[in-house]
Design goal:
There is one protein chain. About 35% of the residues lie in helices and about 20% in strands. The chain is of the alpha/beta class. The chain has an eight-stranded antiparallel beta sheet. Strands 5-6-7-8-12-13 form a six-stranded antiparallel beta sheet, with helices on one face. A five-stranded parallel beta sheet has the order 18-17-19-20-21, with helices on both faces. Helix 4 packs across helix 5, helix 9 runs antiparallel to helix 17 and helix 13 runs antiparallel to helix 14. The protein is globular. Bound molecules: 2-deoxy-2-amino glucitol-6-phosphate (AGP). 2-deoxy-2-amino glucitol-6-phosphate binds next to helix 9.
Amino acid sequence: MCGIVGYISKKDNPNSLRTGIEALKRLEYRGYDSSGFAAWDRNKKEIVSQKAVGRIAELEKKITDNYISANPIILHTRWATTGEVTEKNAHPHCDCKKNIWLAHNGIIENYKPLKAQLEKEGHKFVTETDTEVIAHLIEKFFQGNLEEAVKKALAYIKGTYGLVVISKEDPNKIVAARSSSPLLVGLGENEYIVASDPSAVIAHTKKVIYLDDGEVVTITPENFLMGREKEPEEIEWEIEDAQKSGYPHFMLKEIMEQPESIENSLRGRLIFEEGRAKLGGLNSVRDKLSQIERINIVACGTAYYAGLAGEYMLEEYANIPTEVDFGSEFRYRKPVLNKTTAVLTISQSGETADTLGAIREAKEKDLMTLGIVNVVGSTVARETDAGVYNHAGPEIGVASTKALTSQLTVLALLTLFLGRQRQLSLVMGQRIAKELSLLPGMVKKVLENNKKIEEIAKKYKDYNNFLYIGRKYNFPIALEGALKLKEISYIHAEGYGAGEMKHGPIALIDEKFPTFAIVPSDSVYQKMISNIEEIKARRGKVIAIATEGDEEIKKIVDDVIYIPKTLEMLTPILSVIPLQLFAYHMGVARGCDVDKPRNLAKSVTVE
Ligand code: AGP
């Protein structure tokens, strides 16, 4: 996934390049292995460009000229998909005559045959990327009007793109186009800003227009032309939301703001006296939902683990058979689906290619598609029949934290909604609603363990292997805890159902292989105690996540982190938080870049 910015000032802005670079920096979490810009320089009457490998700061070091007459400008920060991380492969890319310049986010699936044909026609390629094909294809059709040439070229493209294009021979405009990769236009007072997501425009305007698939827009200093009238939308974030607010890292900020993000996920959605959930985004499919006989949850990474916990919730309280698939598996296996199946996707970014692929596969089969999404206006939100926004606010850290607890909260709300359409009693519905409303306060209490968890991380910082175990609602949290540690500190970690240990993983246990055991006082507590004793019998160290008031656990484990007592179905929302903090502090202790871990990107918009 990459970050794209197109900037065009409505009047002469001598700092347009600086403005573009600042906007690009807000997208650096989307990809940061190389970056570049290209701009029409009105005085020199040519397109100037600079690129660099590494963070955007490396590009800034290479900019010796202020290019005060640069307007428009396109900029790009890359997460490599096709072509090594080199300066040559950094975007923007251009055609043979250096007339057409463009920045691209996505994958051109048919770039090889297109490149072969264009080479046959005499085009000379200089990069290993798929993107360069688009520049030469536009060159092939260019006869003086940029948007016409772009539209003709895109007709040959198979794959995904978010694209910004400028031209030397047809200057003073940006042409932008979108197919699957997100793109929006910020309607500023003095400028237009095209970007991959709201973080890049929010400092200038909250008024945006989201492009839909297949749309091509032409932006000049005077106006903004697109195929059809579209009402601008309002970004709901404040700029400080997308900044660190005094924390050393976005990841810690986002862990610590979970009381608020859960509050926001619940706001206006609990009807206590009727023991039900009000989910406006489902109004259009309310009746159809009451007829649904099974749910297939589809998601990736952390969102998939949320889905696994959701499976337990939906089956126990809404009595709906539920299964969970990885987005990357769903459309390649032969799922047995019928018209009474709903496909429920979960995605923080709403742009994950594997999850989008599942939505499109489900729609092929005329199934109801639902989305639990954090980013408003994202592709999942726009392509599903209905859904529920998390309202967790921007999650900038690559590791998903507040999005996960919001996803679990929304899954509990959805369970309540569907359960009360079925056999779930008024009394139980009221109990769930009440417990949900107490979550923000309980989360705050868990966060008070931060210093203690930092100490535990220091104690274990030199261990290179960890096992995470849990059962039932906390089995998915064992998987998530292991993922958090892996992706933030690069330490090997295994997540397992505790009952599975005796079938193999226990062979790993010795004094050098500690275990996190998630053992709240719930229906499987005794089973967990037996598993913990099996580990202790092999000199394994155990860190327990247990329920406040459990004094017994202290006698058999090495460290305990307590969480408040709540309904079993809601314990994952509390038990995951110490694991998030542990992974964070281990990453910091090991000197890792916890906000931008190596090899990862915030949203994987390629397959
Ligand atoms: C989680 O910490 C990872 N960053 C990753 O697994 C992420 O959850 C996954 O890529 C899904 O992203 P989405 O929720 O935006 O679809």
